[in-house]
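Before the break, one more example. Copy the sequence into your notebook; we will annotate it together after we see the structure.
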Amino acid sequence: MKKVKSCLIAFCLLAGVMGQAQIHSAKITFERKTNLYKKFKDQGTQRWIKEEDRIKIEYFELLVNDSMALFKPQESELRETYAWATAKNTVLQDANSQSRYMIKTIWGEELHLTDSLFKREWKITESSRKIAGYSCRKAFWQANDSVRIYAWFSYDIVPSFGPESFNGLPGTILGLATEDGGVVYFAKTVQVVKTEPAQFVLPKKKKVYTVTELKTMLTKQYGTEKWFPQMINSQFGIW
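Here is what the structure looks like once it is written out:
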């Protein structure tokens, strides 16, 4: 009987330690690498990009708690090369209202959008790796017939969010990549911080589109262009 009691006490203590170790609020810094030769596969565009500049590196911050996530570009005073080649989205996700608010720059114009949280069907694998010092499990999402997204999430960081508009896994996503390695996000640092409601407030424009409204407008204007399906899917179907 004493042995059973001792085992129960040890189990409760271990469970308490594990519970305390889980993180419910954090600030995560991400590095994004974009292979511009893979993004722009036509030779005409590639001629504008030097070989030494084909990998574009950018930094973002993700602030999370159990119900909110704010993903935004990290501010920098350094001059950016090929600024036009990649998108720097700001995304606020709210699990309580099941909504997201996005600030996207499309063709040089800053657009504000609102939509419901993006729903994805994830498949969790047995593969694992460490990212920023945290053990992560690998999952994947089949975005369409040609695009598969891999994600590495940590059970130790509880909020079910990640870079861009990603969510829906049992832990925070610390790594994200397209199957061909064209776009890769990896967490560089994880800081355990206490978040405040004011940190999740974004400046809003008078004109706020729904995603459906903006897609309809863009389709009317550019729907017959050859490049349009790829652009619209990249902007709204994946990220």
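The first strand starts at residue 26 and ends at 35. The chain is about 20% helix and 40% strand. Try to locate both features in your own notes.
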